[in-house]
Specification:
The complex is a heterodimer of chains A (367) and B (610). Chain A is mainly alpha-helical and 367 residues long. Chain A is built from 15 helices and three strands. Chain A is 67% helix and 4% strand. In chain A, strands 1-2-3 form a three-stranded antiparallel β-sheet. Chain B has 610 residues and is of the alpha+beta class. Chain B folds into three domains: 35 residues; 185 residues, Penicillin-binding protein 2a (Domain 2) (Alpha-Beta Complex), CATH 3.90.1310; 332 residues, Beta-lactamase, CATH 3.40.710. Chain B contains 22 helices and 23 strands. In chain B, α13 crosses α15 and α15 crosses α18. Chain B is elongated and about 150 Å long. The chains are: A mainly alpha (367), B alpha+beta (610). At the A-B interface, α11, α13 and α14 of A face α1 and α2 of B.
């Protein structure tokens, strides 16, 4: 199964970048939690190392199988996902008011994390063939729309607004990538822009507050504006060189909320300053450029769509998370891929990167 | 394996999309970098300050106010520690429950309590009650588990050791008012601070006030104090040493207890105030600590005005004490000499009106000496009439009347020296000769404060020097270093020659010593006392009314009793003025008070060559 050509076209740069960014994450989880009283929280970085190891293992397993099998079984996998999502809604484990976790044995995981990759696979499969005669019209998007809406609703119900928005984003990216007729594209973008303000009325109060405090965190500095304000203070007070590793007062004294998960970048920016922030951003940028470069060499449409879907989702996560910590986007629970603490996020990111590597690795195998 | 999805045309299309996608990624990262640059480079200073404010909490520690000592370095005022009850609303989850518990012991208004807790920022420590008793502290400590957010701070509190002693001079401290706070911007005062509100406490606020200490503490997001980053210890203010002698002040206040009146005791050799008191008085401790509004109202609405310092603010007709001035004017203007005599038949007739002498039967043939000793009114009616009001006014002014003595404490009254001009200017009426008659025995429009009276007798005692009375002797630091020493200041010399002053002094000695002297009640075995009685008329008695009937007059219309004295007569060391409101005659009501004061003084400072 492992052809020499496959091994020789394996992209080591992407894997190394992945591991470097993961290490940065581990260092700053350590830094963020070293001042905490609880011992189990202090040792969170060790757990993260374990999660990265799991991720790496999953990545290797993903490499073993030809990704094109995913295309074959895509609808089956999709169906299986729907069943799992429904199951989570009915029997899932509640964590802070949201039903997101499924426990199998002593292993808990977030099904919605899988939903993203599975939706990308399913949509990539749908658009795989392309349309040789003309472009995609609106009617061609009815099936992808339904495919997206069902898991979207199931995840909204959990409720997990962050992930469900990612599903919509995935659909939108696919529409952008494939040969959509310009008029259809304009129509879709136009309606989205019109619908977007209306969604305000479907938002819960706390979600509205988060949007409002994005504009001015000072309207509720101790309430919903607190996260944004404290994150801004942490990042800004870092200055050019930062306060030094483990010397960030904002994180050490717990002014930063979610300092080891969603706001891990604020810890880095406070302690390493502008210089450190730039280094991390450059690492991500290199990763994305490298991944896009790899995908552009692929001559299989399913692989390209799958790869682009994954890259854009990762990109969405990185930009949205960073934008959230620096006050450009509202606070929704979106982790920073590879850096934030969290088993599901790490493992699914590694699986996603595994798929990208898989696609790139087997590109020359295609006749 | 065969896959359908290989189509070069469609692949090419996707490759173009990838280029576009790459572009989007680079632009997005550019925007992110720009924003991070904006925060970390441009807004760095602002956000760094916010971060510092976040992590540090500055706690101010009350300063230690300087002490006040008496002339012999005995502590009159110092500070003691008090337990003050605070609440931090964000730590107190059940405000109502807390109120229920603490109101069992402390009386406080429920609405007010909730209001103060609600309106203050939740992270701040709010003062609920000052100076709790040991029992209250014990009670709250016992219920500590049910009182989250409630805690004590041990803070210094002003302590007036002798309660009412010299209250009008010492004054009091009280919580700084909003207007005071606004006026004292940038001088470090904060809401809830104590500030001198009256008396020396107010005048020497900046001297007595210490420097606050501060603690900069690192706190975490939940407000827990982690470590002290920087500490400045509070500093004590400077101490005041007064000219007051606590022992004399005590006897003065004991003598005035239950009476309305004032006493001023001066040192003839410097003008230093050895004691000064106004009665009724108050306890300055009430203003510091938990001072309830009711207690304040009780004091400020009291009919007897305990907050008024009668010694410098009470203005009374000087009565017969004024005869010293009339005599000095008579001698000075050459109207009389020692040998001059006139006959007192009990009344002095001017026009168709009779001005009575206090002694119905008259004094017979009187010279200046006898007129002073027995306080014959007719002699001075005649003398005053011949001098005229303006000459009297000139001398009265020379004796320190009609002007402030220049005492440190504010609110001092000038008294009143009537003259022809004054009458025209203030009453829009000409001066009537009849008014000169009563003015020459210190009635009519004449007014003087007890301090002015003390200053007058003090000058007569020391041979003619009118000192500026003062109560602050020196300012010292805690280790005894003298910061400032106050030296006596001469206001002026009496407009009297030494020869004339000796005639007057001899007469004043006679007032106490001689058989018919009005001030015989001031006699002390072994000590020569000189003095002068006086009666300050509250209402102008009709000329034919009987003086002896005074006891039947309602209390509030009874005359005020004056007595001024000094001792020993030859080499005076103490000068006293006493006024007892509605006391009747000076000889009976006030002379014994002066006697006890002088007696006490010589018990404390015995004469060497006796």
């Amino acid at each position: 199964m492992f052809d020499r050509r496959i091994v020789s076209s394996f992209d080591w740069t992407i894997l190394i970048l992945t591991l470097i960014i993961s290490s940065v994450g581990i260092v700053f989880i350590y830094s963020a939690m070293h001042g905490v009283a609880s011992d189990s929280l202090k040792k969170l970085y060790i757990k993260q190392i374990i999660w990265v190891s799991y991720g790496l293992a999953c990545l290797l397993i993903v490499l073993l199988f030809d990704y094109r099998h995913l295309a074959k079984f895509s609808y089956l996998i999709y169906f299986f996902l729907l069943i799992l999502l429904a199951f989570v809604l009915l029997f899932g484990k509640k964590v802070s008011g949201a039903q997101r976790w499924l426990t199998i044995g002593n292993f808990t995981f977030q099904v919605s994390e899988m939903a993203k990759i599975i939706l990308i696979i399913t949509l990539a499969k749908y658009f795989e063939g392309g349309k040789l005669i003309g472009d995609y019209k609106l009617k061609n998007f009815i099936i992808p729309g339904i495919l997206t809406t069902i898991p979207f609703i199931l995840i909204v119900k959990q409720p997990d607004l962050g992930t469900s928005m990612v599903l919509l984003f995935i659909l939108f990216v696919m529409i952008l990538i494939v040969e959509t007729h310009p008029k259809t594209l304009l129509l879709i973008i136009g309606t989205s822009i019109l619908i977007l303000p209306l969604s305000w009325f479907f938002l819960k109060d706390y979600q509205k507050e988060r949007l409002l405090t994005l504009i001015d965190p000072n309207i509720d500095p101790l309430g919903s504006g607190y996260h944004i304000l404290q994150s801004r203070i942490a990042i800004g007070s870092g200055g050019f060189w930062g306060k030094g590793l483990m010397a960030g007062t904002q994180s050490r004294l717990h002014f930063l909320p979610e300092q080891h998960t969603d706001f891990i970048f604020s810890v880095l920016a406070e302690e390493m300053g502008f210089a450190g922030s730039c280094v991390l951003l450059i690492l991500y940028l290199l990763f994305f450029i490298k991944a896009l470069d790899l995908i552009s060499k692929v001559r299989d449409r399913f692989g390209m769509l799958l790869g682009l879907g994954i890259i854009s989702t990762l990109f969405f996560y990185v930009v949205f998370n960073l934008g959230m910590t620096i006050g450009l986007f509202p606070v929704v629970g979106i982790p920073l891929p590879l850096v934030s603490y969290g088993g599901s996020s790490i493992v699914s990111t590694y699986i996603a990167i595994g798929i990208i590597l898989n696609i790139g690795m087997r590109r020359s195998f295609i006749e | 394996m065969k896959f359908e999805s290989y189509n070069p045309l469609l692949i090419e299309h996707l490759k173009r999309k990838i280029t576009f996608f790459l572009f989007v990624i680079i632009i997005s990262f550019g925007v992110l970098i720009l924003r991070i640059w904006h925060l970390q480079i441009l807004q760095k200073d602002v956000l760094q300050t916010l971060s510092e404010n976040n992590r540090t909490k500055k706690v101010l520690q009350s300063d230690y106010r300087g002490k006040i000592f008496d002339t012999n370095n005995r502590v009159i005022v110092d500070i003691r520690s008090s337990f003050n009850l605070y609440i931090t609303p964000e730590n107190a989850n059940d405000i109502k429950g807390i109120y229920k518990i603490i109101s069992q012991r402390l009386s406080m208004d429920e609405k007010e309590f909730h209001q103060t807790v609600k309106t203050a920022p939740s992270y701040k420590d709010i003062l609920i009650e000052r100076d709790l008793s040991r029992e209250d502290v014990a009670f709250i400590e016992e219920h500590k588990i049910d009182l989250p957010g409630i805690f004590f701070k041990v803070e210094p509190l002003r302590n007036y050791r002798e309660d009412n002693l010299a209250a009008h001079i010492l004054g009091y401290v009280g919580e700084i008012s909003k207007t005071q706070l606004a006026a004292a911007k940038n001088s470090g005062y904060q809401q809830g601070d104590y500030i001198g509100q009256y008396g020396l406490e107010k005048i020497y606020e900046n001297t007595l006030r210490g420097k606050k200490g501060s603690k900069e503490i690192e706190v975490d997001a939940s407000g827990r104090e982690l470590k002290i980053l920087h500490q400045v210890f509070p500093k004590q203010g400077q101490n005041l040493v007064l000219t007051i002698d606590v022992e004399i002040q005590k006897i003065v206040e004991k003598l005035l207890l239950g009476k309305e009146g004032a006493v001023a005791v001066l040192d003839p050799n410097s003008g230093a105030i050895l004691a000064m008191s106004s009665s009724p008085s108050f306890d300055p401790n009430l203003f510091a600590g938990k001072f309830s509004k009711t207690a304040w109202n009780a004091l400020s609405y009291d009919k007897l005005h305990p907050l008024q310092n009668r010694a410098i603010q009470g203005q009374y007709a000087p009565g017969s004490v004024y005869k010293i001035i009339t005599a000095a004017a008579g001698l000075g203007e050459g109207m009389v000499d020692e040998k001059f005599t006139t006959v007192c038949k009990g009344k002095f007739k001017l026009g168709n009106r009779n001005y009575r002498c206090w002694r119905k039967g008259g004094h017979g043939e009187v010279n200046l000496h006898k007129a002073m000793v027995q306080s014959c009114d007719v002699f001075f009616y005649e003398l005053g009439y011949r001098l005229g009001i303006d000459a009297l006014a000139r001398y009265a002014y020379g004796f320190g009347f009609g002007q402030k003595a220049g005492f440190e404490l504010p609110g001092e009254k000038k008294g009143l020296v009537p003259s022809k001009n004054w009458k025209i200017e203030n009453r829009n009426e000409p001066w009537y000769p009849g008014e000169t008659i009563s003015a020459s025995i210190g009635q009519s429009y004449n007014l003087a404060t007890p301090l002015q009276m003390a200053n007058l007798i003090n000058a007569v005692a020391n041979g003619g020097t009118l000192w500026k009375p003062f109560v602050l002797k020196k300012i010292i630091t805690n280790d005894g270093t003298v910061i400032k020493k106050i030296s006596p200041q001469i206001l002026k010399k009496l407009p009297v020659s030494e020869e004339h002053l000796n005639i007057i002094r001899k007469a004043l000695s006679g007032v106490v010593v001689e058989k018919r002297g009005t001030g015989y009640r001031a006699r002390i075995p072994g000590i020569t006392v000189s003095g002068k009685t006086g009666t300050s008329q509250v209402i102008q008695l009709k000329s034919d009314e009987e003086e002896e009937e005074k006891e039947e007059i309602p209390y509030e219309f009874r005359d005020h009793a004056w007595f001024v004295a000094f001792a020993p007569s030859e080499n005076p060391q103490i000068a006293v003025s006493v006024i007892i409101e509605h006391g009747g005659h000076g000889g009976s009501a006030s002379a014994p008070v002066a006697r006890e004061i002088i007696k006490k003084y010589f018990q404390l400072y015995p004469l060497k060559n006796v």
